[in-house]
Amino acid sequence: MSFLTLFYGFRSGSVRDPFGHEWMLQHEIEKVSPEEMQKRWSAMLGNCQSSKEAAKYSPVQIQHTTHTMIKKILLGLALIIAIICVIASFQSDDMNITRSATTTATPEAVFKIVNDFRQWDAWSPWSKLDPSMKKTLEGPSEGVGAIYKWSGNNEVGEGSTTLIESKPNEKVGMKLEFVRPFAGTSDVQFTFTPEGTGTKITWAMQSKKPFIGKIMGMFMDCEKMCGDQFLEGLANLKKIAEAAPKA
Predict the structure, then answer these.
(1) Other Cβ atoms closer than 10 A to 7
(2) Lateral strand order in the sheet of 171-180
(3) Using omega within 30 degrees of 0 as the cis cutoff, is the peptide bond preceding 245 cis?
(4) Would you say 22 and 15 are in contact if contact means Cβ atoms under 8 Å apart?
């Protein structure tokens, strides 16, 4: 590794990586006026022992070196991007998330809350991410055909949830359609299973990962992030169901 200060105010040098590639690096350490640059260049020529040594530091050679360095950097970035894309292409297309919680409330009490979109803001983990989120309800107030639409900040995005299945005290099924930040669809199910004197609530979601989702999954655990939000929502749902008046 060797570095030297050049007449035009840059510190320049080269390094060799473990794979044998040589990289040229430059960093500006001072602003040099054209007059001062010419003065330094003339002085350097006078101190050089040969024209060959002077040519090594000529503006033309320095420009060539800079262009070579930029090309190597761009090629290196292209190679890294290509490797990431290849690895991402082998990732699974499917994303399945399931979380469960138990409550002392009855299956009927929990079912009534989930089956009614009017009550979702009280327990949904996403509502508090954007208090000013715009929400609209369409269709019946609860049960099959009810539609919940939202549009908010970048954390909640925009989309709609359509209730497509409703088995009293047993199951609620939904179709999620996302508009942003990424377009996509997901299938969601809430199941309510009697357990002792209470209920086991299971929240499950299945979706297909877009290619950008596969790339993001290489750098973050999307399953855990979404699963943690499910657990938060289940905890809220449990609290509300247990506080509801007994029938």
Answers:
(1) 19
(2) 94-103, 198-208, 184-195, 171-180, 158-167, 147-151, 134-138
(3) no
(4) yes
91 with 220: CB under 8 angstroms?
Answer: no
**Judging by beta carbons within 10 Å of its beta carbon (0-12, 13-18, 19+), is residue 199 exposed, middle or buried?**
buried
- Count the alpha carbons within 13 Å of 99 in the hemisphere toward its beta carbon: 15
pLDDT digits (tens, 9 = 90+) for 140-192: 988 999 999 988 888 888 999 999 999 999 999 999 898 887 778 889 999 99
Angle at 73 between CA 67 and CA 75, to 5 degrees: 100
Query: Cα 57–58–59 angle (5° rounding)?
Result: 120
Q: How far apart are CA 236 and CA 210, in angstroms?
A: 30
Model pLDDT for residues 100-138, shown as the tens digit of each residue: 999 999 999 999 999 999 998 889 888 888 888 898 999
CA–chain centroid gap for 178, Å, is 15
Query: What is the CA 187 to chain-centroid distance, rounded?
Result: 21
Q: Where are the alpha helices (DSSP H) in 90-178?
A: 107-114
Q: Is 109 exposed, middle or buried (0-12, 13-18, 19+ CB in 10 A)?
A: buried
Name the CATH superfamily housing domain 95-243.
Answer: START domain (3.30.530.20)
What one-character DSSP code corresponds to residue 142? B
How is the chain split into domains, by residue range?
2-89, 95-243
Instruction: Give the integer Cα–Cα distance in Å for 41 and 7.
Output: 6
- Helices (H), strands (E): how many in the chain? 6, 10
